[in-house]
Design brief:
Helices cover about 45% and strands about 10% of the residues. Strand 6, helix 10 and strand 7 form a beta-alpha-beta unit. By secondary structure, it is an alpha/beta fold.
Length: about 350
């Protein structure tokens, strides 16, 4: 199962303490099978898996198609990360399958108001970011902000590049979104990861009185943001599946997402959320800003239409039951064998 083709585990075959030969000095292997397509003096476990597996599955159908194409970073497309020929070969041979990951729906998720988020922010201790929290709470302690915009995720290039991409009117897309959001609304972002990206995001948030960056991760805070927020932002440059958009939708919070990978497979533009596209990173960033404007304008001008969209988002079901069924049918048994099973056995 390929969760993220960009993480390939490449390391030298010899000549280094992390090399295959150093770890397994007596291991016999064929160079053509274990080697990286671009760096023949290195082992690539991901390439090896694509070559040898009877079945290869990605965690969304769209991502399975995307990894068969080469990266085109100039145009903002991330595909096979150098392994596209191996992925395309697996697809031609009928070995490549895309099966969407699932989400737990153990209990009905109720929308929560502003006060639970006030309590969570009051209790939060996140170093430098905590200095911004009292300012926000002071302004909104007795009244709910006009809009609560949220984001939860890892701070990697994959997840944050479009937030930080310059646009025509502002230093970054996030600057443009925060400026247009206004001081009577708030943006709360939770996450951790690359230190330089953290600093860049914090610099953007520090320029605006309506933004708080919470560095770190806490599941209770994440749940609070999913269940209290009005609009969730997830502009990933690529996304094998994604879970944050599912969790936000589960709580009835529509999402603005980039139309790639699992985001494309889970959010329907104008029905359960807002999907943007673009042929280059600058176009994608501008489309991201425009999609946020569209979402917030709909919420303010058409409350009934907005509530319908929220209900449809919450009604979506990306179940593990469906994923497990697909695994059985498409990876392990096959359609004909599954059809022959007694009814009680078909569900594993």
């Amino acid at each position: 199962t390929v969760h993220n083709l960009a993480l390939q585990g490449i390391r030298p075959l010899t000549g280094d303490t992390s090399s295959l030969q150093h770890w397994f000095p007596d291991l016999q292997y064929e160079m053509r099978i274990v080697s990286d397509p671009r760096y023949p003096d290195c082992i690539n476990p991901m390439a090896l898996g694509l070559r040898l597996a009877d079945k290869v599955n990605t965690v969304s159908p769209s991502y399975a198609r995307e990894i068969c194409l080469p990266d085109d970073t100039e145009h903002g497309f991330y595909g096979g990360a150098g392994l596209e020929k191996l992925a395309a070969a697996a697809a031609r041979e009928g070995r490549l399958v895309g099966i969407l990951n699932g989400c737990m729906y153990a209990r009905r998720r109720q929308r929560r108001g502003w006060q639970p988020l006030v309590r969570a922010l009051t209790a939060w201790d996140a170093g430098a970011a905590a200095a911004r929290i009292p300012e926000i709470l002071q302004r909104f302690r007795s009244k709910r902000p006009r809009a609560i915009v949220t984001s939860v995720g890892r701070f990697t290039q994959q997840k944050t590049a479009l937030f930080l991409q310059p646009v025509a009117t502002d230093q970054t897309a996030l600057d443009a979104i925060l400026r247009r959001l206004g001081d009577d609304a708030v943006f709360v972002m939770l996450g951790s990861g690359d230190a330089l990206l953290e600093q860049s995001l914090e610099a953007v948030c520090s320029r605006h009185a309506n933004a708080v960056l919470l560095r770190g991760y806490d599941e209770n805070m994440a749940d609070c943001l999913y269940e209290c927020g009005d609009l969730f932002l997830m502009p990933s440059s690529f996304e094998p599946c994604g879970i944050s958009q599912m969790l936000a939708m589960r709580a009835g919070q529509p999402c603005v997402v980039h139309g790639v990978g699992g985001l494309r497979d889970t959010v329907v533009d104008g029905e359960t959320g807002f999907v943007f596209h673009g042929h280059t990173p600058p176009e994608q960033a501008q489309a991201f800003v425009t999609a946020c404007d569209t979402a917030l304008s709909l919420r303010e001008s058409s409350p009934q239409a907005w509530q319908k969209l929220c209900r449809l988002a919450a009604a979506q079901r990306f179940s593990w039951d469906a994923a497990a069924r697909a695994y059985i049918e498409q990876l392990y048994i096959g359609d004909s064998a599954t059809a022959a099973l007694p009814a009680g056995d078909k569900h594993g």
